[in-house]
């Protein structure tokens, strides 16, 4: 089954790949790996801003991480032409804007991780970091970057 068919089966419509907000490119492919720049939490067309453990719930954080994962997929599709070129999701790095006493960063990051497994199956299983930080660009709640092994064009 193609990844496009899998997305349709899951009822997933990818957002349009967002333009960079600073001096970088969304995806760099080198040595068979696609390095995806950090994608921020955009939910319902709006930036999900705030801090987990203060003004956002765990559920909102998970939704934000999933939104980051959707944008990672959108960026990969734009850069590679097809998500069928994804061989394996190698690693995700999740950064969660959280209070000093918030310790559920791994649960938040699962929003992106579980999406990758749902879309790519075993090839979506990956290594991961889930880090709490005191702030993120634009005041967003979550940012996720990725390293993905890709098949030659």
Structure notes:
This protein has 153 residues and is an alpha+beta fold. The chain has a single domain, classed as 60s Ribosomal Protein L30, Chain: A, CATH 3.30.1330.40. It has three helices and seven strands, in the order αββββαβαββ. The protein has helices spanning 3-10, 58-80, 105-120; strands at residues 27-30, 33-40, 42-43, 46-47, 86-97, 127-133, 142-150. Strands 1-2-7-5-6 form a five-stranded mixed sheet. The chain has a two-stranded antiparallel ribbon with strand order 3-4. Helix 2 (58-80) crosses helix 3. The longest helix is centred in the middle third of the chain and has 23 residues, at 58-80. It is globular, with a radius of gyration of 15 Å. The model has no long low-confidence stretch (mean pLDDT 97).
Set down the secondary structure blueprint.
Blueprint: H1 3-10, E1 27-30, E2 33-40, E3 42-43, E4 46-47, H2 58-80, E5 86-97, H3 105-120, E6 127-133, E7 142-150
Parallel strand pairs: 5-6
Antiparallel strand pairs: 1-2, 2-7, 3-4, 5-7
User: Mind summarizing the main beta sheet?
Assistant: 5 strands, mixed
Provide the number of structural domains: 1
Amino-to-carboxy terminus distance = 18 Å
Helix content: 25-40%
CATH fold call = 60s Ribosomal Protein L30, Chain: A
Computed over alpha carbons, the radius of gyration is 15 Å
Q: Supply the CATH superfamily name.
A: RutC-like
Kindly name the structural category: alpha+beta
Taken as a percent bin, the fraction of beta residues is 25-35%
Please count the beta strands (DSSP E, at least 2 residues each).
Answer: 7
The strand order across the widest sheet is: 1-2-7-5-6
Element pattern in H and E: HEEEEHEHEE
Give the CA-based shape: globular
In the CATH hierarchy, the architecture is 2-Layer Sandwich
Mean pLDDT: 97
Question: Which runs of at least 5 residues are low in confidence (pLDDT < 50)?
Answer: none
Number of helices: 3
CATH class: Alpha Beta
């Amino acid at each position: 089954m193609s990844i496009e068919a899998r997305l349709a089966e899951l009822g997933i419509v990818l957002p349009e790949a967002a333009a960079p907000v600073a001096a970088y490119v969304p995806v760099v492919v080198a040595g068979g790996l696609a390095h995806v720049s950090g994608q921020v939490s955009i939910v319902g067309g709006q930036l999900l801003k705030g801090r987990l453990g203060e003004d956002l719930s765990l559920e909102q954080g998970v939704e934000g991480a999933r939104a980051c994962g959707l944008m990672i997929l959108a960026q990969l599709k734009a850069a590679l032409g097809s998500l069928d070129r994804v061989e394996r999701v190698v690693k995700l790095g999740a950064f969660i804007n959280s209070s000093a006493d918030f310790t559920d960063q791994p649960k938040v990051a699962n929003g992106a991780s579980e999406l990758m497994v749902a879309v790519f199956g075993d090839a979506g299983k990956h290594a991961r970091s889930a880090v709490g930080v005191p702030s993120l660009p634009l005041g967003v709640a979550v940012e996720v970057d990725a390293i993905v092994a890709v098949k030659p064009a």
